[in-house]
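Task 17 of the worksheet. Students: predict the tertiary structure of the chain below and write it out as structure tokens. Keep your answer in the requested format; marks are given for formatting as well as content.
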Amino acid sequence: MGVNSNRVEDLPCHHDHHQTTTVRIPSDIDLEAMPPLEIHRVCLPPKQSTLQKLKHRLGEIFFPENPLHRFKNQTWFRKLLLGLQFLFPIFQWAPEYNAQLLKSDVISGLTIASLAIPQGISYAKLANLPPIVGLYSSFVPPLIYSLLGSSRHLAVGPVSIASLVMGSMLSEVVSSTEEPILYLKLAFTATCFAGIFQASLGFLRLGFIIDFLSKATLVGFMAGAAVIVSLQQLKGLLGIVHFTTKMQFIPVMASVFSHRQEWSWQTIVMGFSFLLFLCITRHISKRNPKLFWVAAAAPLTSVIVSTLIVFLLHSKNPKISVIGHLPKGVNPPSSNMLYFSGPYLALAIKTGIITGILSLTEGVAVGRTFASLKNYQVDGNKEMMAIGLMNICGSCSSCYVTTGSFSRSAVNYNAGAKTVVSNIIMAAAVLITLLFLMPLFYYTPNVILATIILTAVSGLIDYQAAYDLWKVDKLDCMACLCSFFGVLFISVPIGLAIAVGVSVFKILLHVTRPNTMALGNIPGTQIYQNLNRYGEASRIPSFLILAIEAPFYFANSTYLQERILRWVREEEERIKSNNEGILICVILDMTAVTAIDTSGIDTLSELRKMLEKRLLQLVLANPVGSVMEKLQQSKTLGSFGLNGVYLTVGEAVADISSLWKARA
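Model answer:
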């Protein structure tokens, strides 16, 4: 992309004399119809102490949105109130809450509860946890988020990806069937570490860490995870009793076909019938968003109908496996089950960090998506602290990792939710279920849980996004495919690590091999743009004008030196072959060079000396304030002389051409 060479650095000039020179462009330079041009000084930025620079830089890194601006010029009472609203967003909307808002929130809360109850049970099974833990995780975390969260539409609870990752990572080391108590302890401990990690990121303003999970990485990872989750549901969908604990594609498919004798036709008929029903209701809701409640109510309807069928026919068809007994009552405390010492502590920490990153990425992304639809802002760091504290509290109350679910949040939004009270209503509905309705789930068939999960995760495979990645950025598409196949054929955490590695490699590639381009003048203007991009742009005789589109760092300084020298060599060969005269000046447009380090400064100085030996002048155009300051402090600026630094490429061309003409 071309760089606008006419940007003026908005900094005061601290020289004693503010002089400008009017220069008419010489006739031998083919830039017709151009007005007289003023040559401006390139000024240094205002002087600042090291402490001031550090304070400014840290503020830009950790507080880009300046969260304390609202406290300026306020009374102490007002500051206290604003502080409470900042820490507990409930104080922001509670004073204005009314019956009309409550009505909307009750409707949306009951709607998402109808989805959360069957999904909670299903996702707990996906994590190899007792089904009741999924309901526990749909009760306490939403209440905590209601106090601390800033999103009005985020519906909190267990999610498929975090459930899958937790289940796969813990099951690789500890069996949930042979050592259920230890497995449960590790799940709660991993949840605690996930919460600590998430809250720490928010408190320390380090949310940019999760940005390493790029869109391409997540598209591939979620698609791969969705396929793995779907394959795991073949156990319940086919009625298989003995099934592999591995998550990779090949072992799962081998297990499916090696246990064909365990397939139950009754289970298969029931499973595919309800799967078809769920898919049809989802299609109806997609085609007509006003009928969102059809898809939202379908899972609970499936659970109720299938439970009645199994209850009535269980004596005749005992082959359909059921959930069985679920204990009544609210969440029991689990702080005594947290595992902080022993040989599996590292496993709990690793699982917690990975599930924490994934759930945090999903929760913040979902919150921001629906906030943008309603034109309000979600504070990413506050969301991290809210989700983190929610998981810390959850780990002490028999819950596993929870976050904002896209499917439930979409239903919450479409149902007309106005505030986070919808989460409180959902939690109340789950509480009633825990206290009074648990015996009703005894005959709920496991195959229904499998169909609910299959329907939910099918939306995670985004074919259009993958196609768009291929069209727009092949390297992004490569990261997507690496993530997808890594999850599918190796393992979930390794697949994610491969994808992150490809994304980091892409960043390093852009940093170490930045873009450079030759610029030409657009006739009748002082604009200089990429010669390859703009056909009307023309070369300036005896000038080679180059633009660098990256900071000048140790990582790319050698490459830039070699690339600039190559540009010079190719330009000299072109001039010689076309008999156009000689090359006299090389202008570097520094507009996009946002920073420079000592290696970059040394490279510039060395490049200037090398070009001088070839009787070529090196000129810098529009270096930004920080670059100018470092060049000045290193005494490199003085070596360029009075005619070595200009505010724009146009002024450099005009002034240097005028000097040549005067000498001639």
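Marker's comment: The first helix runs from residue 50 to 62. The two ends are 37 Å apart (CA to CA).
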